[in-house]
Amino acid sequence: MRTDIHSPSKLVAKDYGFVGILYSKKGNRQGRTRDSYGKLVDLHIARVQEHQERTLGKFVNHKGECTAKKSVDCCHVCGTHIRYKAVFYHARTNEYLVVGFDCASKLLHGNTALFAKIKEQVKKYNTKDKTVETIYECGLGEAYEMANAPVDPDEAPQLRKKKQIIADILGRFVTYGKISDKQIKFVESLLGQVKNWDRYEAAQKAEKEKSADAPEDRVEVQVTVLKVKDTDWGTKVFAKHESGWTCWGTLPREIETAFKGDVIQFTARFKQADNDSKHAFFSRPTKALTLKEAEVTEVN
Ligand SMILES: [Zn+2]
User: Fold this and answer.
1) What's the Cα-to-Cα distance from 75 to each of 60, 65, 90, 206, 290, rounded to whole Å?
2) CA of 99 to the centre of ligand 1 (A)
């Protein structure tokens, strides 16, 4: 039976001042721990630390013993093991008590809004940690680390773009906690390209060199749609001829529902790009029609 001044049956609530909140950080399975749980939680941890450094006061555990701050892991009032700790200071003895949120709300006369906020923040960060763990479990750990590595200002813009796509997909995964098998495969293939960038670039270059020159003047062409894009200047189409050259221009109105993979035919005026004879821009397309629709293999 405790008889000390802080014993729950004796303590006088008004003698204790609220200092701040501590949260016991939990290591995850990979042994990685989070350094920060966001501004609010960090602020409270710092506040308790500063206070204690100033007073050099001792922490008292639920058995009434003075101990190190770190080893107080039970609520002073009810003795339950706690992760969230409200810290109270008793000036007369220069001692601190650690109380769980449930018991602390009684001491603070029901002022629990702050506790709810802290819990919410920690939960948000823990969910984030769990998602990062899932990224590793999906085998995308390497992609995740690469996406979060510092950007090399000298790297090729195309390479940077691919890394950015990986970072965007994994960033959305962390935010929303969802990723599809299709996206996982896509990230894996991008990662393969990024890791073997020199080889990938050489292969791209070799393929381009093999391809025929894009046409000039007004001609009829049959090309495969690679991309349809809405821009401020109308809907544009990026397409590729079977001999390898590519072209970009306004999507003809007759085939405005064209889709990636469709084979289309139209007549237009072509002009090769200034520094690339394998690519052309076309204008004023006419007589457009779809020769073959793309096979739809997946419905999202
Ligand atoms: Zn308690």
Assistant:
1) 11, 13, 16, 69, 73
2) 6
